[in-house]
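ok trying again, last paste got cut off:
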Amino acid sequence: MTYLTDRDVRRLTTAAVLDVYPYLDRQEENFQGRPLAELLTLLPAEGSKEYLAFRGTLEAALAQNPSLGELLLIDQSVLAGFSAKHVNACTFWDPASAIYICYRGTGDGKWVDNGEAYTRASSFMQRKAEEYFDSVAERYDLAHFPGETVISGHSKGGNNAQFVAFDSPYAPLIDACCSFDGQGLSDAATAMFREKYGAAEYETQLAKMTAVNGSNDPVNRLVVPRIPDAQTYLLDIPLETIADTHSLRSMLRGDQLLWSTDAAGRITHGEPGPIWRFVDEVSKQVALQPLKVQDDCAMGLMSLIELLEKGKLGTGDRKIASPLEWIGFFTQGAPLLLRDLLHTKEGKAALTAALQSAALSLLRPGQPAAAFR
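nice, full thing came through this time. structure:
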């Protein structure tokens, strides 16, 4: 059993709270250099349901830990010349200890890029994420920064953080990489990292990484995880809806992550739930298929999610799956998914849990779904 130190917990908790901020999707010149608490007074009081929910999560964290409100927003990717369609990130400075570079999770137009990264060494948006970090390293002279440099993100943001922590020429300056529900990296990416920097440097960077995932999160298992189990922690999240399976807000209660703990109150690695196990099993089956089939499955599924969300196309260098990729997905990927869902113990358990959660949500709004506990 690998136990987290108090310093580890503080770093991970701070990173998780700061990773909420990019989801507000607000980057403005007059925000530069202001503390987080002041930013909340400048941000709009009204907005979409999603915006208000993320704002409320930040407000709850700062109410319990006002010191988080003292962290300064010193850099915003849009103001640094990067398109929000490609990368949405910001940098906070804790004068007492660290710089935090935070990447937003998957948004409109970014699902297809996830599919591109499934089998390829890199994707368009991963490279943009690296460019942003490199620019921060150069503009703020991180080589001479006295505190820690922490890179983090949720979902696609966590995946971007992992990629940057391996691939950037400034990666040795990174002291910690925190991935929340972030998917892993392709075999081609891992081979590229090892070839560029050697096995020893690869292991050095890998040792800096920590994965914190929901016990029923489906996304972190979509690609083979690179962060070892000994550096991975599954949170004990009381889920009320299916949406909570992959939500940064669901990971937090105030300023605390919902750690799994033992009888002595020590943080443990936690136990995976039925949805986590099902996605893990499907991913293993897909990984056994020829590379072309893997690519078709990834591009088809991510394109389908993109279209179902808001009927939009990708905003990277790939807009949607090709006709041949669609054919591959519907003739090989979709049947594999249905087979595993209906005919494996993992699939049946996940389906049962999902149905029970939906029923409980309707019958007892606001009550956690016991099937996921």
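cool. The longest helix spans residues 323-343. The radius of gyration is 20 Å.
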